């Protein structure tokens, strides 16, 4: 087990535009070796793939990206709408975001972030000869805790989990359910050098080569818990209201003379 | 802005027991400099504080630690019970855990993790002369995503958020709501060198000194979102059932001849 690793922001990348060869740009900007993991802000992948729409079309874009509304709340600044998007990711505004987008535009997430990650990893491996992994990251809020963390929305050539189930802890007891999400932890760590206010969309992680593997390993989609197995699949208010309607209808159907149903 | 940092597991620490001077042990095990951040697995703090109970008392300990039941689900292996504990942390079994605990025992979380972090930071700063930050970490599951990540349950001498609100992105647009949770990202990164199956309960982060500050900065408790502002404050099934009962009762109170209420 490695006991040390480092994360470094990749400087000197140009502003990315539609059609840019991101694999070639990254491979040319940093020296890479076997076992390195590249963490790429999904926004630059969106830019290279032309996933940009006019800001006027923002609401329509959000609607088009939304598969399922998870929770909404009105507040002073408007409406917070937490949705599951086409990529299966739960977050605000379906990942449609104006920050770091060209003026007058908003960026959509890559259509298939795992496929984008795989294309990048394949390209960079071919150009450099180095067996690297690639994680695409995005910045998302989360239940229960304030602030955001960067998480993995795409991955290729890396084990997204450190599956310890069945192994033993230091005292010999089995670690029944322990399965740290390496990809999310690496994505969050890379945020600490990339930042939001700077132009450093790519970081390289050195020293975690034990998590690098084949390009056909499960991607970040495998991190997403299916809604039917999620205790928090919809917001508390939405669930309450759904229950209220069902309970009200049921009581009316039963009638007051037959309360036992 | 630093563009590189490293994380290293601190090797050579002994098994920790009640009453051990953790600050002295850590200060003696690793060279520290201004701006270093120590990420300490909360379990070793629990051990040094004697937060250990017999395994037979596990259920009683969970009940005593629980402030509020957030969600429960029965499954083959028993019941998953997600609760808010006395520390305000939402997780399974109120943080009461048998892994890496002495045989026949379970560990409780420190009573006040921010206070424990502050005592550690104060002690280590005094012993070494280095202005370090301290984060206490624990391993928790989360909604929507499989696996666990390490997050910050205690903090002292570090900015737990990188508060960018009001700053501009690289293209000059304001970052209205962006507030990365540095403490959680650092805790997760440290998990990658500490691991669950090894005896490395402490990691040192070098290169993120811009986040190190006064000992009276807000602790990890400030990361916890108050339930009344949380869209996912209780599980979907629990909220549905509560709504169902209320709707049913309301319809019965109104009666069939007065459906408009």
TrEMBL record, chains A, B:
Q: Record keywords: GTP-binding included?
A: yes
Among InterPro entries, the record links this protein to: F420-0_g-glutamyl_ligase, F420-0_gamma-glut_ligase-dom
Task: Supply the alphabetized keyword list.
Answer: GTP-binding, Ligase, Magnesium, Manganese, Metal-binding, Nucleotide-binding, Potassium
GO MF, one example: coenzyme F420-0:L-glutamate ligase activity
- Is this entry keyworded Mitochondrion? no
Kindly give the Pfam families that the UniProt entry links to this protein.
F420_ligase
Query: What positions does the domain Coenzyme F420:L-glutamate ligase-like occupy?
Result: 13-207
Listed Gene3D superfamilies: CofE-like
What NCBIfam families does this protein's entry cite?
Answer: F420_cofE
Protein's recorded name: Coenzyme F420:L-glutamate ligase-like domain-containing protein
